[in-house]
Amino acid sequence: MRNTFGNIFTITTFGESHGKGLGVIIDGCPAGIKIDEDFIRVELQRRKPGQSKITTQRKEEDNFEILSGVFEGQSTGTPIAMVIYNTDQKSKDYSHIAEKFRPSHADYTYHEKFGVRDYRGGGRSSARETAARVAAGAVAKLFLAHYGVEINAYVSQAGAVRLEKPYQELDFSLTESNIVRCPDQETADKMIQVIDQTRKEKDTIGGVVSCVAKGVPVGLGEPVFDRLHAVLGHAMLSINAVKGFEFGSGFEGVTMKGSEHNDAFYKEGDRVRTRTNHSGGIQGGISNGEDIYFKVAFKPVATIMQDQESVDTKGEAATVSGKGRHDPCVVPRAVPIVEAMCALVLADYLLLNRSSKV
Amino acid sequence: MRNTFGNIFTITTFGESHGKGLGVIIDGCPAGIKIDEDFIRVELQRRKPGQSKITTQRKEEDNFEILSGVFEGQSTGTPIAMVIYNTDQKSKDYSHIAEKFRPSHADYTYHEKFGVRDYRGGGRSSARETAARVAAGAVAKLFLAHYGVEINAYVSQAGAVRLEKPYQELDFSLTESNIVRCPDQETADKMIQVIDQTRKEKDTIGGVVSCVAKGVPVGLGEPVFDRLHAVLGHAMLSINAVKGFEFGSGFEGVTMKGSEHNDAFYKEGDRVRTRTNHSGGIQGGISNGEDIYFKVAFKPVATIMQDQESVDTKGEAATVSGKGRHDPCVVPRAVPIVEAMCALVLADYLLLNRSSKV
Amino acid sequence: MRNTFGNIFTITTFGESHGKGLGVIIDGCPAGIKIDEDFIRVELQRRKPGQSKITTQRKEEDNFEILSGVFEGQSTGTPIAMVIYNTDQKSKDYSHIAEKFRPSHADYTYHEKFGVRDYRGGGRSSARETAARVAAGAVAKLFLAHYGVEINAYVSQAGAVRLEKPYQELDFSLTESNIVRCPDQETADKMIQVIDQTRKEKDTIGGVVSCVAKGVPVGLGEPVFDRLHAVLGHAMLSINAVKGFEFGSGFEGVTMKGSEHNDAFYKEGDRVRTRTNHSGGIQGGISNGEDIYFKVAFKPVATIMQDQESVDTKGEAATVSGKGRHDPCVVPRAVPIVEAMCALVLADYLLLNRSSKV
Amino acid sequence: MRNTFGNIFTITTFGESHGKGLGVIIDGCPAGIKIDEDFIRVELQRRKPGQSKITTQRKEEDNFEILSGVFEGQSTGTPIAMVIYNTDQKSKDYSHIAEKFRPSHADYTYHEKFGVRDYRGGGRSSARETAARVAAGAVAKLFLAHYGVEINAYVSQAGAVRLEKPYQELDFSLTESNIVRCPDQETADKMIQVIDQTRKEKDTIGGVVSCVAKGVPVGLGEPVFDRLHAVLGHAMLSINAVKGFEFGSGFEGVTMKGSEHNDAFYKEGDRVRTRTNHSGGIQGGISNGEDIYFKVAFKPVATIMQDQESVDTKGEAATVSGKGRHDPCVVPRAVPIVEAMCALVLADYLLLNRSSKV
Question: Is the domain B4-355 a CATH 3.60.150.10 member?
Fold first, then answer.
């Protein structure tokens, strides 16, 4: 079940970058959800290439079609299959990668693991696969809306430019107001500048996406292996180019004392709350009703417009040259992917939690 | 399957901190492995409480018994059940936690999720559960030894004291030579000092465990969701008190340029190697034959010997007082747990990889 | 994972009878298998409606398209998605079933379970879903051919007409030589007659499909719950209209004595063989190298061309009238479905068995 | 996950016939169920050897211990581990089976599959493993009692002696009133006679267990592969010595016409009912609220007190002689096993069904 994620609300994705199409089957989506195709379309547009000067200039339309599982606008409880056809499969010249391993790509490892490899545009290892996740995540968001759960991701670092404000001071309605998807305009400007500069240098740079989920009910997450943050981490680390995940106080929490780090409980009206939230909304692996927040680190994109040392499939030394149109920094387009994976995990654990008590 | 981890080489753990016993079933361990009980015992001793002045002074013997799956010293391919009986179940006074929620513990979330809660020593949420993982991980190590895979974890940070040397400069045979499990004696001394000082202040502190796996064959890891590092991250984040995971260049890779970060390929004898290893031994989610390395961040232990603000199960304000004997810093005892979870993931993916080709 | 079957070689199907399309994702098919599209097409044609006078006269073309997972004619180890588009989705008049529950169909139970229901042609509960299984089963057969495994199913009973010959006396090359798919022409003629007669009476009748797998290696099947025959039974019982499954001596074995029923071992050349095969090729849940054989019972098709008592979605008494074109007996078209499910199980367990020993 | 069964309410069993112990972990049992240990004990006693003259005279006490998951008499939502220690592990003389393959046992197939084999008493392939299932099934029954579900199995055939009455005419309170567990005393007497006679002939005989589940809510079962009857079939076929499974009209339904077989719907008060129940309470794979009923065929026990032709582990001809104390007919002790597996399936699907609607 290697291309499947989830326990009850599950997704199985398929497809290669330059094959006939890619897509996803959502199995386990409860019946009775209004499937708003426009909303799915908007989510896909947030991810698609060619949106701005700081993303790849490649054009892909990412039109999707729902093949099953929706009847008269509602989910029926049966598998929802969505396909995104690759309109541009024209036989490009792939000779520069067919027989050479691009550094820090999946070329070499796929070649060794499977013996054969669809080298066109990276095949299955292409980040194009995440379009299917975004489509599925949109459905998960529609399900979560029934419970008042809201998910907001944003770019909190691009290269060395870091947004220093804590998430509580941000206005998430501004995230989509600039091309880098940072809800603080001043920082956004700096990020855009550094990305644009890097692009001009024919190089790439990394970044960090932060994510906040509000309105998550108490009780999601399972002891022991499927702690909510462990599954969120799994989900985030499965996104292309991700190198790290932390939630709540994260790596910085390491240097804190227990007496500072512990989140004191108090009562606010009927609700048990915590005065601080170093726990990131998750205690003992289970949501405690506070905001869930986490960060995801993305490495610099491996495709650069420069010559690089490598070897070919015969094991001879080779030079890989940069070609095509690629993102100088992946994080602006990663924002909807992080949200989608977060939504899928929360939808799944919300359903799992229905079995906690007799 | 919430208490199960793995696809083929799977573990299912059970047991509460102060119940009759805890343990694990390993299902899917191949037949024909020599099960060295002494080795399992040694691994458990590395994790057990009461080892030194910087761990909890609580004594637990962690004697285990193998109930099944081993015949004449060999694994038979059937489930290996191992039980660690709790010798000290005496009915202590738990009134201080039975009806109060300890801050940053799992008390509140378990209470809300399940309605009932075994509050004795944290019940199922106790880190005592990891003893079962260490026992199972020892078996996974015995399996991996057939393939020449070696796993070494060590403490690389305690509070603000950080080991600055890269792992390549360390002699892992020194890890067990000091009580903090840092293979650099000078840094170890500073770590021990800060932990001991924190203990005297009735406080706790966090830390980082680093881990290196050598000899991992090329090809382990599955596209798309079960990238090797995503599953390693899941495994590590499922360990009590973990707040973050990064592999290879991790969060620091964010600020690098693609041209610096990419790992150039070259040929060394028959083997395709990379000149640098920012990939942490994993490319496109699949091992590339280089060393796999990653870091795991642990928060300060939540149990402190101080009074803390909280609420009780009736929702009234309450004060939780520190009691009992607890670790001032969890990382020295976490080293074998990190190794165990790493071994379990590698064993599982080594078996999964047997199905990659016809 | 309700629409998924298998552990390693898995299939996930989707689609409704009259939606845009239906299909399957095969995940876990090893890389390096030559994917013969013509063979898949032939298998689908064996299942498709409208083949003969004793099947439904409905015409469906069942043209499939492979969207992913195959490159230059070979499986790549990534998910193989196949879609069969429904060419005939025209909005027929479904008023006769939209608000009435057809007796012994899934109308009522889907309605109650999900609240909504795609009533067009039975929606997800339609046997049209099995086309996706046949396509996937064809790929499993191509994989099994590497191991010399051959699967032959045939009709052994239609209504009261029963093929009395044991399978050892049959020539499976004759199965496709008549429209009922019984490899004994004399019995086939009687079967055709009884089915045709039943059709003329606007009624339907049941039947039995027998299946024999030759060349299955020793060792397939897992203790305890996933005994090979238990999984074969699960697979067969998941086919529409199936009411029973038996393997080897089956229900008749009940009246035998142990001394008659036991299969004595002997040596034939290098191979351990059994003198009889009441075990049906499976002992202790694991294949023993002898022929695997089993029988699958199908009920009479529920759609009949007669008026029937029922209730409507409002709970009022209603009459359901027969309409459309349906099979008088399902077994001739069920033969390739039984083979497909058998192939999928054997492919999966062959891969699982690669992990039995160190 | 070969020794695990279920999706949400799951069991994982372990243990060999003559190892230290065997047992089960129930993972996913909801919190808040009163765990009645006396009830579990009674269920185990119905299965245990040595109950009567028509079962094996071997004595095994089957005392169980709950190690985890229960606190103050209630399930806590964490794994419930139960162990049954083997009190009689004394090193008997196993030379008669250590190096010979008993006909129609699992000796040969385990030997080939795993290379090693715990031959003592059949090891993992022994029916003793089912004690763990009965213990787990008792917990499932306690859960189902919250929903008014009641499960009754009984012996409906022993050798050629068959109970002809339909289940509707039986008084299940009589099942435990005789040693063969047939609720019709006259038939029971004949069954006892035939079993006793067979035992005297040092032979064995097969039988059939029928099972009826009443009070099952509408909606249990999942399209497509996990139809309720497919999973029940899987569960039953995973019991030692089972050769066949049928539900509702079963194999006899084959000869019926659709017009006879279809179950007409009508309204009874508020409830939609069916006039007949050839569907066996399951339509389209989903429970319809009528009684679920099915039959399970058991072969004659393979251990007979006679000499048999075989081969040894070196492939030489050998004679296997009957030894020890074994059941002449397995069905009286199989009744609680069938009930247990039925309860486990229903508990699991009841929980799964909580996710059907938004």
Answer: yes
3-class DSSP state of B353: helix
CA dist., res. D134 & res. D127, Å (int): 12
Nearest-by-Cβ selection for B351 from C9, C28, C355: C355
Q: CB-CB: which of D10, D32, D65 is closest to B116?
A: D32
- Suggest the residue from C70, C144, C355 to mutate for an interface test with chain B (most B CBs closer than 10 A): C355
Strands A80-85 and A161-162: unpaired
**Cα C31–C33–C35 angle (5° rounding)?**
120
Tell me: the pLDDT tens digits for A226-240? 999 999 999 999 999
Residue type, B133: R
Put simply, the answer to whether B254 touches A159 (Cβ < 8 Å) is yes
Give pLDDT tens digits for D196-228: 999 999 999 999 999 999 999 999 999 999 999
> Chain B contacts of D69, Cβ < 8 Å?
14, 16
Cβ(C335)–Cβ(C46) under 8 Å?
yes
Decide if C113 contacts D283 (C-beta within 8 A): no
Query: Would the ipTM clear 0.90, i.e. be above it?
Result: yes
Considering only the C-alpha atoms of chain C, give the largest distance between any 2 of them, rounded to a whole number of Å. 70
Mean pLDDT by 10 residues, chain C (358 residues): 92 96 97 98 92 79 92 97 83 76 95 94 93 98 98 98 97 97 98 96 97 98 97 98 98 97 96 97 98 98 93 92 85 98 98 97
Dist CA A278 CA B97 (whole Å): 22
Interface of C with D in 315-334 (CB under 8 A): 315-317
The H or E element containing residue C210 is strand C207-214
Structural contact between residues C242 and C294, judged by C-beta atoms closer than 8 angstroms: no
Pairing verdict, β C80-85 and C150-158: unpaired
CA distance B283 to chain C (A): 16
The SS3 of residue A122 is helix
DSSP 8-class letter at A274: E
Q: Which amino acid would we find at residue D223?
A: P
8 A C-beta contact, residue B307 and residue B318: no
Q: Give the helix/strand (H/E) hosting B277.
A: none
- Tell me the backbone φ, ψ of residue B258, rounded to 5 degrees: -55, -40
Burial class (CB in 10 A: 0-12, 13-18, 19+), C89: middle
Give the torsion sign (CA, C141, D230, D103, D3).
positive
Tokens for A285? Answer: 């692996």
B173 in contact with A, Cβ within 8 Å: no
Distance from CA of A66 to the nearest CA of D (A): 19
Q: Report whether C269 contacts C239 (CB < 8 A).
A: no
> Cβ of A357 under 8 Å from any chain D Cβ?
yes
Q: Is A255 helix (H, G, I), strand (E, B) or coil?
A: helix
The domain segmentation of chain D, as residue ranges, is 4-355
| C266: Cβ contacts below 8 Å, ≥ 6 apart | C272, C273, C274, C275, D309, D311, D317
Ramachandran bin of A164, using left for φ above 0, alpha for ψ from -120 to 50, beta for the remaining angles? alpha
Q: Quick check: helix, strand or coil at residue B350?
A: helix
Interface probe, candidates A202, A240, A299, A305, chain B, greatest B C-beta count within 10 A? A299
CB D133 within 8 A of CB D337: yes
What's the length of chain D?
Answer: 358
Q: Do D356 and A223 touch (CB under 8 A)?
A: no
Q: Do residue B76 and residue D23 have CB atoms under 8 angstroms apart?
A: no
Rounded CA separation A326/A324 (Å)? 7
D132 residue type, one letter: A
DSSP reduced 3-state for D197: helix
The amino acid that residue B177 corresponds to is S
Reported as type and span, the H/E element at residue B54 is none
- Tokens at residue B117, please? 């809660």
Other CB atoms within a 10 A radius of the CB of residue C167 amount to: 16
